[in-house]
Design brief:
The protein has 2 domains: about 1-25 and about 245-435 and about 440-444, Single-stranded right-handed beta-helix, Pectin lyase-like (Pectate Lyase C-like), CATH 2.160.20; about 30-240, Single-stranded right-handed beta-helix, Pectin lyase-like (Pectate Lyase C-like). The longest helix is centred in the first third of the chain and has 16 residues, at about 5-20. With about 450 residues, it is mainly beta. The strands form 2 sheets. The chain has a 25-stranded parallel β-sheet that branches. It is built from 4 helices and 27 strands. The chain has helices spanning about 5-20, 55-65, 155-165, 255-260; strands at about 35-40, 45-50, 70-75, 80-85, 85, 90-95, 100-105, 115, 130, 135-140, 140-145, 150-155, 175-180, 180-190, 195-200, 205-215, 225-230, 230-245, 245-250, 265-275, 280-285, 295-315, 320-340, 360-380, 390-400, 410-415, 415-425. About 10% of the residues lie in helices and about 50% in strands. Belongs to the glycosyl hydrolase 28 family.
């Protein structure tokens, strides 16, 4: 057996022993609640014009009293339910019937403004505070947002225009956000037009996202589908996501704020997903990764019409790590750069970052991948101070389009070391074997 293969096998055992491969298999509790009330009972009007924020807030407040009685369901019947932001509560199921559409108000006054997340120190778009998301969970247990494929529409156009014209007062809201929550399920729903992220879980554990369709316009600026952020035990499966920027992005905080908050994203499993990312990457890691990202398994993904397929982004000042990441069984069609790793990517929250906080990027496995109509196979740009190490490529076959540079240039590499086995087109020499670009054997 070739040495590279032995090492790949050893590494895959190592990754499996970390358990990331099992997150989706864990049994989910049946989400039947002994009590159910309809939003109609709280005076809501589903005409697409009446503002129902108070109805949602009152319904959730009422259903809090069922938390110790097995929880309750808030039922949203067919209709167009306009609302500003509201909070969920523990042991609650928000259920959207088929043809029920929750519509986000386009008046920023209907969106509460809240403090920035401690691991970011500021909003993502602007310094300072940020708009609260449309649907929020804060310090909850056992909460479910589901339905018979009902829709949550963020009507994001207004926010995208304000972002583009630099007229936002605060950073844009997300569509659904869970903070410091456990045992969270989002399933069987369609999400449209998120102002920024569609589903953001931050400081959470046991997050299960299943059968979700999420779409924003390809022109929407920096919209992202699902963002597991400083969260562990996360499963994303059987979903279809098409976004302006990234489809799925794993994050863990920004520079000095993320380093001091020190909450990693770990044990994430992503499987059976259909992804498109117009101006970003279908699956991205970082660039905010200061709390560390590890033990991630991605398998059975279809990536199409994306600027990049799988991207690792970081920069000096981030600290943290991205390691033990196993990406396999991927099918890519019409993708600019299949694999991108950029160690000089992204900006800083403020001038307080530590320029000597170098990120570590290591033990990345990409294998069993086919691609069609790809322009650039791989771009790996580590930095002198923190080269990427142990990047393992195996069984990759990419058919390149005529936009691609000469065969010799379809991989572009600097400050990276790794190995490869059965990769077409042939990778850069840095990724070809165990003699690294520094002329020493690479120890795994
Ligand atoms: C929603 O929860 C946040 C805390 O995350 C709190 O600041 C806000 O006042 C709550 N809003 C309502 C309407 O309860
Ligand atoms: C999910 O949505 C589908 C399609 O609308 C529906 O047939 C199914 O019953 C839903 N599943 C659950 C668990 O509600
Ligand atoms: C939900 O609706 C979307 C949009 O209409 C559709 O593409 C998707 O297949 C549906 N999902 C399910 C589970 O029925
Ligand atoms: C190849 O992919 C590019 C996008 O990267 C797309 O614009 C083009 O239409 C695709 N070509 C074919 C033949 O599908
Ligand atoms: C890395 O990111 C920086 C900053 O966005 C950019 O200038 C540079 O071109 C990127 N490198 C690659 C190979 O994409
Ligand atoms: C190579 O990867 C393809 C999927 O892209 C898979 O069908 C095939 O079985 C793999 N070959 C080996 C030898 O593992």
């Amino acid at each position: 057996m070739p040495v590279a293969l032995v090492l790949l096998l050893a590494l895959s055992c190592l990754i499996q022993s970390h358990g990331a491969g099992n997150v989706c298999d864990l049994g989910r509790r049946p989400n039947t609640r002994p009590h159910s009330v309809s939003i109609l009972e709280f005076g809501a009007v589903g005409d697409g014009k009446t503002l129902n924020t108070i109805a949602f807030q009152n319904a959730v407040f009422y259903l809090k009293s069922f938390a110790d009685k097995g929880g309750a369901q808030l039922y949203v019947p067919p209709g167009r339910w306009l609302t500003g932001s509201f909070n969920l509560t523990s042991h609650l199921t928000l259920f959207l019937e088929k043809d029920a559409v929750i519509l986000a108000s386009q008046d920023p006054l209907h969106w509460q403004v809240v403090d920035p997340l401690p691991s970011y120190g500021r909003g993502i778009d602007l310094p300072g505070r940020r708009y609260m998301s449309l649907i929020n969970g804060y310090m909850l247990h056992d909460v479910v947002v589901t339905g018979d494929n009902g829709t949550i529409d963020g009507q994001g156009l207004l926010w995208w225009d304000r972002f583009n014209s630099h007229s936002l007062k605060h950073s844009r809201p997300h569509l659904v956000e869970f903070v410091s929550s456990e045992d969270v399920t989002v399933s069987n729903l369609t999400f449209l037009n998120a102002p920024a992220y569609t589903i953001h879980s931050v400081y959470c554990s046991h997050v299960y996202i299943n059968k979700v369709t999420a779409t924003t316009s390809p022109e929407s600026p920096y919209t992202i589908g699902i963002v597991p952020d400083s969260s562990n035990n996360v499963c994303i499966q059987d979903s279809s996501i098409s976004m302006g920027y990234d489809a799925i992005s794993l994050k863990s905080g920004w520079d000095e704020y993320g380093i001091s908050y020190a909450r990693p994203t770990a044990n994430v499993q992503i499987q059976n997903v259909y992804l498109k990312a117009a101006s970003g990457a279908s699956i991205s890691f970082g660039s905010e990764m200061s709390g560390g990202i590890s033990d991630v398994v991605v398998r059975d993904a279809h990536i199409h019409n994306s600027l990049s397929g799988v991207a690792f982004r970081t920069t000096k000042g981030r600290g943290g790590y991205m390691k033990e990441i196993d990406v396999s069984n991927i099918n890519m069609v019409n993708v600019g750069t299949a694999f991108l790793a950029n160690g000089s990517f992204g900006t800083h929250p403020d001038s307080g970052f530590d320029a000597n906080a170098y990120p570590l990027v290591s033990h990345i496995m990409l294998h069993d991948i086919v691609g069609e109509n790809i322009s650039i196979a791989g771009e790996f740009f580590g930095t002198k101070e923190s080269p990427f190490t142990s990047v393992l490529l195996s069984n990759i076959s990419l058919s390149m389009n005529s936009d691609s540079p000469d065969d010799d240039d379809s991989w572009q590499c600097s400050y990276v070391e790794g190995s490869s086995e059965s990769v077409v087109p042939e990778p850069c020499f840095e990724l070809k074997g165990f003699e690294s670009s520094y002329g020493r054997a690479v120890a795994l």
